[in-house]
Amino acid sequence: MKTYEQAIKDHYSRENLSDNIRKALVRTGETVSSHADTEAFDEFHIRGREATRALADLAGLTAGMRVLDLGCGIGGPARTLAAEYGCVVTGVDLVEEYVRAAEMLTAQVGLSDRVDFRHGDMAALPFDPSSFDAVWTVHTTMNVENKTDLFAGMGRVLKPGGLLVLYEVCAGAASPPYYPVPWASDDAINFLVSTDELKRLLGASGFLELAWQDVSQVSLDWLNRAIAARKAAGKGAGPAKVGLGVVMGETAAQKSGNMVRNLEEDRIRLIQGVFQLGS
């Protein structure tokens, strides 16, 4: 039987990811000199950079804040928080190829002095207590079964009164979701909980709710627009660009289609929220 770590790697890993990104950029003639140049492929959560900015604004993140980005992927949100909000960001991801690609892109856009990355497990954080002003997590907790320990670890590394900023997929009224989805190919690493259960777990872990928004409908609308735009691009309507397929693999379109079905049938819900660590 696969270990949890192996199941995660099997789902997310992309061999030679950094080289594949470089080759794709050369093939399309794109240049990368700013974090804005990678928006089409480095924020592979629903609503992309739009969601990153909305969440950062909701949390009131400001210049100089130390932010821990858990499940950072190839670093898109971390670079946005550094470049646009002035935060100092540390990203952690279990997939080593993601971390290497994140470091490569961050150096290329000149943000390595404000953003660094660690290969590791967000359920076993190697940081001192009270190290961060905010913990940021986007589309990650559904891969973690023991959320009680996960949230306790987040609380440990946050400063008193620090913020937990999250944008997550939750279980809807129907189940299971259609697979594959961006976070799972089957139920082996799918640990969705309902919105009520997520709130309960956060409260039990000492977090106080500051903001909570259901963004399921806006996410569904965004997905439908993105799928329509991708189909138009495939018919030659506009220049070719590096897209999510370079990171998500050949099943990227299928995963997006299943997300639409899952949202339409209330098999999943999307929420964004801000919580504060209580005393």
Task: Write up what this structure looks like.
- With 279 residues, the chain is an alpha/beta fold.
- The protein has helices at residues 4-12, 17-28, 39-42, 48-59, 76-85, 96-108, 147-157, 195-204, 216-234, 245-248, 252-264, and strands at residues 66-70, 88-93, 115-119, 132-138, 158-171, 207-214, 268-277.
- Helix 6 links the parallel strand 2 and strand 3.
- The longest helix is centred in the C-terminal third of the chain and has 19 residues, at 216-234.
- The chain is globular, with a radius of gyration of 18 Å.
- The chain starts with a helix and ends with a strand.
Quick overview of this protein structure:
Helix content is 42%, strand content 20%.
The name of the CATH topology is Rossmann fold
Query: Average pLDDT value?
Result: 93
Question: Strand order, biggest sheet?
Answer: 3-2-1-4-5-7-6
Helix percent band:
40-55%
Relevant CATH superfamily: Vaccinia Virus protein VP39
Strand content: 15-25%
Structural class: alpha/beta
Task: Assign the CATH class.
Answer: Alpha Beta
Secondary-structure element string? HHHHEHEHEEHEHEHHHE
- Stretches where pLDDT falls below 50 for ≥5 residues? none
Largest sheet: 7 strands, mixed
Counting DSSP E segments of at least 2 residues, the number of strands comes to 7
Count of helical regions = 11
Choose one word for the global shape: globular
* Domain module count: 1
Using the 3D structure, state the CATH architecture: 3-Layer(aba) Sandwich
Tell me the distance between the termini: 42 Å
Cα-atom radius of gyration: 18 Å
